[in-house]
Amino acid sequence: MATATSRPPLRTAIATVCISGTLEDKLAAAAAAGFDGVEIFEPDFVVSSSSAREVRQRCADLGLSIDLYQPFRDFDSTDPAQVELNLRRADRKFDVMEALGTDLILVCSAVSPTAVDDNAVIAEQLHRLAERARQRGMRISYEALAWGTKVNTYDRSWDIVRAADHPALGVCLDSFHILSRGSDPAGIEQIPGEKIFFLQLADAPFMNMDVLQWSRHHRLFPEQGTFDLPAFLGHVLTAGYTGPLSLEVFNDVFRQSDPGRAAVDAHRSLLALYESTVGSVPLDRAGSVTGDSGAVGTSGSDRQVPPAPELGGFAFAELAVDDESGPAVAATLSCLGFVHSGQHRSKPVQLWSQGDARVLLNAARGLDEHPTGAAVAAIGFETRDPAAAAVRAQAMLAPLLPRRVGAGEADLSAVAAPDETAVFFCRTGAADASSWIGDFEPTAAAAGTSPLGLRRIDHVALTQPYDRFDEASLFFRCVLGLPTRHSSEIAAPFGLVRNRTAANVDGSVRIGMTVSVLRRGGQWAPGVTDPQHVAFATDDIVAAARAAVAAGAPVLPVPANYYDDLDARLALPAEQLAALRELNLLYDRTSDGEFWHFYTAVLGGRVFFEVVQRIGDYQGYGEVNSPVRMAAHRRQRRATTSISS
Amino acid sequence: MATATSRPPLRTAIATVCISGTLEDKLAAAAAAGFDGVEIFEPDFVVSSSSAREVRQRCADLGLSIDLYQPFRDFDSTDPAQVELNLRRADRKFDVMEALGTDLILVCSAVSPTAVDDNAVIAEQLHRLAERARQRGMRISYEALAWGTKVNTYDRSWDIVRAADHPALGVCLDSFHILSRGSDPAGIEQIPGEKIFFLQLADAPFMNMDVLQWSRHHRLFPEQGTFDLPAFLGHVLTAGYTGPLSLEVFNDVFRQSDPGRAAVDAHRSLLALYESTVGSVPLDRAGSVTGDSGAVGTSGSDRQVPPAPELGGFAFAELAVDDESGPAVAATLSCLGFVHSGQHRSKPVQLWSQGDARVLLNAARGLDEHPTGAAVAAIGFETRDPAAAAVRAQAMLAPLLPRRVGAGEADLSAVAAPDETAVFFCRTGAADASSWIGDFEPTAAAAGTSPLGLRRIDHVALTQPYDRFDEASLFFRCVLGLPTRHSSEIAAPFGLVRNRTAANVDGSVRIGMTVSVLRRGGQWAPGVTDPQHVAFATDDIVAAARAAVAAGAPVLPVPANYYDDLDARLALPAEQLAALRELNLLYDRTSDGEFWHFYTAVLGGRVFFEVVQRIGDYQGYGEVNSPVRMAAHRRQRRATTSISS
């Protein structure tokens, strides 16, 4: 690994194929996200009404270099006439490149039935091509596709380039093509850095499927999948590669998302990968740092992006409420043992607390931003250095949210998570402006011991827009230092749901992310939404549930069939089963431990609460029970809104 | 194959897992679609608040039998203590089945690490289970999962059942588990029919991927995928199976679609499969036949559903237009050489014609049903026996559309295609009511020779709702006798697009179906819609294009980059390239032939026109050029609506 003093250059690029839209849309998005350059993906250029010269000018105006033109397919051939046609085709593409002002083209290994199998013959044909390129001041970057008919490993592509021995011919390395085949990337260090003409980076989830389909539809941006890209990039940098780090990601979701948003996600992934590989990111190469706070904003070439914060727990969860949902949420919190312990000095915000669990009810945010009634609007995270965490968040391209601060009130900067939830960095109880809690005037309500014994927030579960799920995972990992630690897929009553949890090492912060993979809301079942929730931890779930029921909490009813099945599956002791059944508790167990939990009804919008007890080292969230919860919430919806299908 | 006289029974069933919603939603949908019975998928029951007795009563009220309770997993075990726990678990499930009033449970082969590998041991354990079942009047249906740890082929499951030799133990055959592994289903004929306790049917597209994921997410209803299910079912019937034909389809799209609609699609698939296997479907077992026409409506046990019609071409394409789009569409048709040759006697509908190409512009349908301006509202198909085609359509569960008929006008019944396009069966020029054309008063416009020489409609391309694509394929195959003959996938500028074409043998009727796999409309790019179009055939595309341009048709501009690429790729003769370039023509060629075509702008809504010339035996639609078309339409949208991203 390179040290900070000999840090390799950080130049970023993106292939236009990664994002949605016309070529013009894509260039604008790449520039706005801070990329240094682009690869022009030929089909994007072919459908554009902009000439090559116009594209060149547009890129210059946007401050983008054109680092590569790609792809040139099926060059080598056992058919000599076809080779001549292919050389003619290349000449036409050199014309385009000349007008674009780029000198590098990607030639990928042939997939045609006439592909050559003899390295010497391929080398000879590539040598001819490279010589034609050289005469026009251009260069050829040869890449082994993972599904090339004959050439499909990087070491074979390098053998051929070495044999061709032409100054205008080098290799292009693509992490997907190499890692998807299980090739050992360590051998890359044997390739002279100056012969690695280009580097394309892509991650991917592990999938046991045809590699061509995997590549064309399911690639991800770095740090979003399962490939060890820091190790891969380390080998490439050790070899002496000094060119751009360029993304080439084919992904069906990114292909149709807002390109501005996807480009930011993409650029963040490169910053995160560089940091993981090299150790740190220069602040002047990261996202622009702006904001109201005078503490940050300048950058020098020797300043680094602060490392990811070590979060110490939840400071608060803030719910947006309106006139209708506010009282319902407050009443439920009261039944769950919370007290209204503070009132904001300048805004219509209530603080409800119990132990270290704190919930803010904000009636000012409810109307415009959260039209659904009640919703999770913000999360406060405890961290020792909120200012550094905010600098990092902005450097890692998290959008800064505007904030109105009253005189003498805490000045917390907030950034928007991918689902628009506001993220605050706090130091609750600190003597400075980072403690938000001083903004609240204590009420007369006694903060005595609650019979429920809720200690803290266990997790907050956020529903993600379907095309921001991978972006959200990267955001929580990169901005908040919360890697994905748990993932699952649930065949729920109204469609497939994927879950991931981002959490810190000690489990004091857990963020659940859920996404309805195909469903987009209640098309046929208008009572079905994808609600968010806040879960509180207790050490005695049975006592907590009894107290909640006694206080009149709207505990979600669980059907008898569930307990009959639990009995059949797990043969629990009779008293345990009776307690579960009596109190509408749900249950899960693994080899690591047990999970007991209960839910409330959905409260006037898209929020509900959960109370959980973890026993042993159980790391999940009782996802196996979520279909029970969804069906029960649906029944409540129907009962209260008379929706019927 | 069984003959009509010895026709096997047609009883239909569906596993509740196939469709979306709560158990109550699913039962209602299955009954409404005409199924005789259901398999209760256990997770659907577990999340339900209805007790087993209530479910039993509900099914009885709906006229549904409960044919199977499923699945019971991981029964056999190398751990004797686990076997005892599993027998206890089975006893609890027998309790549920007793209350449900069903006697058959599905036990699938074990996938656990403790699965037994010795047939004799598995047989002994299953014998114990079967004996317990027998004592309660129940039976066990043993199925080999394709990914069972040890037992994963149907012949091994039969070997085990035979060895266990218990009257309450038989096999369950699932077409997916058998065909996905490439097993030869002919051996099924060696199993005594009475030992085949249950039959589960599912189709699937060919996918080179992990069989578990393939099964859990991508199964399809019969006749929607690539399995040879008629051959499979033939073997099962030859063996003597007399139980229900039951669907078990896990599909991410169906899982979240309107269950009422999905159940109809599902039932249609079984009727189609039965017809393909046995030769015909008794009319009284198909969908209920109702309608205004007195010619049909009664059914006898010896009457058969008429075979699929042999379509002879397009009678017309009908566009809904409004005050704004109507003149624009009419003007464009005029530029394309059509004349306004008729006016409907009682409705604001114009007939425009050229050769055998006829387009109706209907200003009465435009406002309520098609709020987007102009849209394809209906298609008329030529057939020799429109009444029989209508009987079949309704028997195959196509929804009959209401129709207002004026005195003395043609009385055509219409059914709705999955995308809501009305489908009419016509006999243009017939002396009876099946000729619609007599409803139009000829105008004074000369129907002389057009310089464009458009002869007929080549194809109509319909955009499908994303969750009705497979339903649409089955509809066109089953109701109209148009199997899918061509399919492709296009990485278009705004996301992945899949195309299929349903066509008859002589190509006189071709329906294009396109679907945006993930995109749901213009989230980030509000100018992007998924327009439909009507394509007209000519024998001289160059002359047609020149005439259209001379007449001022809004021919879609094609970027110069496209022609440069065409030149590079295909090295066309210079005159051909010049003609293409001059006239904004697009081009494709395969080993079968060539395709020349041009498009118009989108006309005031979501409709455009295309003019095509097929040379040789070219069967495609120039899909390779559709990204060029989409980007060009987007530019036009932006230019006229000032939408910018």
From TrEMBL, chains A, B:
InterPro entries named in the record: DSD, Glyas_Bleomycin-R_OHBP_Dase, IolE/XylAMocC-like, VOC_core, Xyl_isomerase-like_sf, Xyl_isomerase-like_TIM-brl
Pathway per the UniProt entry: Aromatic compound metabolism; 3,4-dihydroxybenzoate biosynthesis
Binding site for a divalent metal cation: E143, D174, Q200, E248
Alphabetized Pfam families for the sequence: AP_endonuc_2, Glyoxalase_5
Required cofactor(s): a divalent metal cation
Domain of life: Bacteria
Catalytic activity: 3-dehydroshikimate = 3,4-dihydroxybenzoate + H2O
Domain VOC: residue ranges: 313-428, 456-601
Enzyme class, UniProt record, top EC level: lyase
EC number(s) per entry: 4.2.1.118
Keyword Isomerase included in the entry's annotation: yes
The keyword Nuclease is annotated on this UniProt entry: no
Biological process per Gene Ontology, one example term: 3,4-dihydroxybenzoate biosynthetic process
Keyword list, A-Z: Isomerase, Lyase, Metal-binding
Binding locations of Mg(2+): H459, H533, E610
One Gene Ontology term of the molecular function aspect: metal ion binding
Known function: Catalyzes the conversion of 3-dehydroshikimate to protocatechuate (3,4-dihydroxybenzoate), a common intermediate of quinate and shikimate degradation pathways.
Family: Belongs to the bacterial two-domain DSD family.
The name this protein goes by in its record: 3-dehydroshikimate dehydratase
